[in-house]
Amino acid sequence: MKNRLKLLRVERGWTQEQLGQVLNVSRQAVNALETEKHDPSLDLAYRIAAVFERPIEEIFENPHR
Amino acid sequence: MLAIGKFQTSAQKRYTIRIAAFTIPYVLVNMGAIFGAFDEVGANPVAAWLLALVVAAPVVGQIWALLALMAESDEFVRGLLARQFIIAAGLAIALFTGWGFGESYAHAPHAPGWLVLPLFWAMFGLTTVFVRSTR
Q1: Is the domain of B84 the same as that of B130?
Q2: A46 in contact with B at a CB cutoff of 8 Å?
Q3: What ipTM goes with this model?
Q4: Domain range for A17
Q5: Contact of A30 with A16, CB cutoff 8 Å
Q6: Is A37 within 8 Å of B3 when comparing Cβ atoms?
Q7: Considering only Cβ atoms within 10 Å of each terminal Cβ, which end of chain A, N or C, has fewer?
Q8: Single pTM value for the model
Q9: CATH number for the domain including A16?
Q10: Residue A20 maps to a domain
Q11: Percentage of residues in chain B with pLDDT exceeding 90?
């Protein structure tokens, strides 16, 4: 799923490891999200939205619209 | 996709210890068998079956270690491992079944059933290289 996760992470000056710690997932998971190798669950998408204080659709492109 | 060294999560470190704990006894018992440590056991059918079950027991531990890793990991690692496990198991079953029919119909040399374990782990190793996505 296309997303702006890497851009948002870099804006904050975080490494993948640091974002993983904030989200309580592994660095591999952050990397997989950024490289579109994993579509997040609704729960994880909401967690990411909460961390960056943005609506989900500002972070993940809705593929059905 | 397991990370290595300092990049391993705590769940992956526990998995490495658990898989070693089950694999080392398996290898040691089989090495013992290769060098004749259990040659006399074959004379007693009960002892022979007991030995067979003891050797096979760590295999259950290996699968448990993998399932425990999935349970202790985040959703990406869990989904990826599940996909890799299913593909590896499917390939191992298909290859071994094919060989079995080769024995039945084409006089292929007999392959002992325990070979399915190294075959599965070989397929699992292969899937970790080529299957890197949960999609």
Answers
A1: yes
A2: no
A3: 0.94
A4: 5-54
A5: yes
A6: no
A7: C
A8: 0.88
A9: 1.10.260.40
A10: yes
A11: 80
